[in-house]
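Design job #97: recover the sequence.
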């Protein structure tokens, strides 16, 4: 038995592999022959870590975990019990007053705002009576049915300018008024496409064989007399034209449409809604309006005119309210040449688009107490008028007016009516697309207007500038069309 001290087995140190470099791996040092200098001393491999230094008595191992140390309390802080709080022991009387004043003013502001909203809401006049449907048109029927004997719409056919010096002739052609895919289209076309350009300017006689002058006159048109006798001169001016290059007379260069409910529907107080998209194009003049069934108070404008919507097809850059504006107004006055429309009109505008971009709803609300015209919402009203005084008083007309050299003593044509007169009679609806005119709707010298209103050759000047305005109407038949989606009329009952 041996008596030696047992020796413990000491494990052999196992070399650890070097970690991969951030920039990628490289062959281990042992994988390639080691390099030595001329004296035989081994050289350190490229990128190899330097050899470890031996531990000494001064070597330290930095701890990565911070030690928790008690934070010293600042000597600047005093004991809370020693702090003075005078507001606790002595109350400031003004603080209480300020408190109540602040909250009282806030409460009064909220109450005043609520009261204003309430009374503002209550002050908006509304139709409180029952409404009975008179017309509900969605234009799903074909063209022949819509304008047929049993249809709701009547085409007015004339070329006399309708009292405004308009440059279009209105026709009964399905090229100018037709229905398609549930919409009504009023589309302007060129007369030269039918009779040729030369005939428009010279040597041609154009007769409207289906002229409706005898049906619509003389009771309802602006500028007409209040007589039922036949006016041959007015008839021929409205139903035919002769072009003559010497005199400057031409055939109306544009054909369009004007349709009415004169024979089918009218209301005396009620509501009208028309959903439509306006046409784009220079000098186009779309309108939704109403005229009296009978000229009870005399010829236009004595018996009144209600314009639910009028606009201009000119672009937004037009300086006198283009297609981004719509206007509502009332026309009325004691004489044919004295119209007080300037006292009863207004408009609404689109700030970022225009009314030819999409469909909008144009509405009339009309009672014995008020009349309102708006687009899409009552908040977008163009005209809101209370019938709180007679129109003759509202007009503030002079007692005597001069017609040339003849003085005329003004008489009140509505003296036997109501505060709503002349807007207290049955009115029927008109939808039309006019072109140009000499009544001032398109002001002179605005937007490169190619004619002057007082010129004897205004229509010819307009026609000769066709290359300027016709391209703005578009070539697809849609852009320059007045498109109507639906028409609704209610009567107070």
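Job complete. Output follows.
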């Amino acid at each position: 038995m041996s008596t030696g001290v047992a020796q413990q087995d000491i494990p052999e140190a196992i070399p650890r592999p070097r970690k991969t470099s951030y920039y990628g791996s490289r062959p281990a040092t042992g994988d390639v022959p080691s390099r030595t200098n001329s004296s035989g001393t081994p050289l350190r491999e490229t990128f190899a870590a330097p050899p470890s230094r031996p531990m000494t008595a001064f070597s330290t191992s930095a701890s990565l975990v911070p030690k928790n140390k008690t934070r010293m309390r600042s000597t600047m802080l005093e004991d809370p019990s020693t702090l003075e709080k005078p507001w606790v022991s002595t109350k400031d009387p003004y603080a209480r007053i300020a408190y109540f004043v602040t909250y009282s003013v806030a409460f009064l502001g909220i109450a005043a705002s609520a009261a204003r909203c309430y009374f503002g809401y209550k002050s908006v006049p509304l139709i409180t009576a029952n409404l009975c449907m008179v017309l509900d048109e969605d234009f799903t029927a074909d063209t022949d049915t819509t304008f047929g004997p049993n249809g709701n719409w009547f085409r007015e056919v004339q070329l006399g300018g309708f009292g405004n010096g308009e440059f279009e002739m209105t026709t009964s052609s399905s090229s100018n008024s037709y229905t398609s895919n549930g919409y009504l289209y009023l589309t302007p076309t060129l007369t030269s496409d039918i009779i040729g350009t030369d005939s428009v300017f010279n040597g041609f006689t154009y007769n409207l064989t289906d002229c409706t002058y005898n049906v619509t006159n003389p009771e309802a048109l602006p500028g007409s007399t209040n007589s039922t006798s036949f006016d041959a001169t007015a008839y021929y001016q409205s139903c035919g034209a002769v072009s003559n290059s010497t005199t400057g007379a031409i055939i109306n260069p544009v054909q369009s449409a004007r349709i009415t409910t004169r024979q089918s529907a009218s209301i005396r107080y009620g509501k009208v809604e028309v959903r439509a998209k306006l046409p784009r194009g220079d000098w186009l003049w779309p309108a939704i309006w109403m005229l009296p069934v009978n000229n009870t108070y005399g010829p236009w404008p004595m018996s009144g005119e209600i314009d639910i919507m009028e606009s201009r097809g000119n672009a937004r850059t037009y300086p006198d309210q283009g297609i981004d504006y719509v206007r509502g107004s009332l026309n009325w006055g004691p004489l044919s040449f004295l119209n007080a429309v300037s006292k009863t009109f207004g408009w609404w505008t689109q700030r970022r688009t225009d009314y030819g971009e999409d469909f909008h709803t144009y509405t009339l609300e009309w009672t014995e107490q008020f009349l309102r015209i708006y687009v899409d919402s009552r908040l977008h009203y163009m005209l809101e008028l209370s019938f709180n005084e007679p129109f003759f008083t509202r007009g503030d007309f002079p007692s005597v007016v001069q017609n040339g050299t003849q003085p005329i003593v003004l008489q009140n044509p509505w003296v036997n009516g109501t505060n709503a007169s002349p807007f207290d009679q049955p009115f029927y609806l008109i939808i039309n697309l006019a072109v140009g005119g000499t009544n001032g709707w398109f002001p002179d010298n605005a937007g490169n207007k190619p004619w002057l209103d007082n010129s004897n050759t205004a229509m010819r000047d307009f026609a000769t500038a066709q290359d300027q305005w016709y391209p703005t109407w578009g070539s697809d038949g849609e852009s320059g069309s007045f498109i109507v989606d639906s028409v609704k009329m209610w009567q107070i009952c």
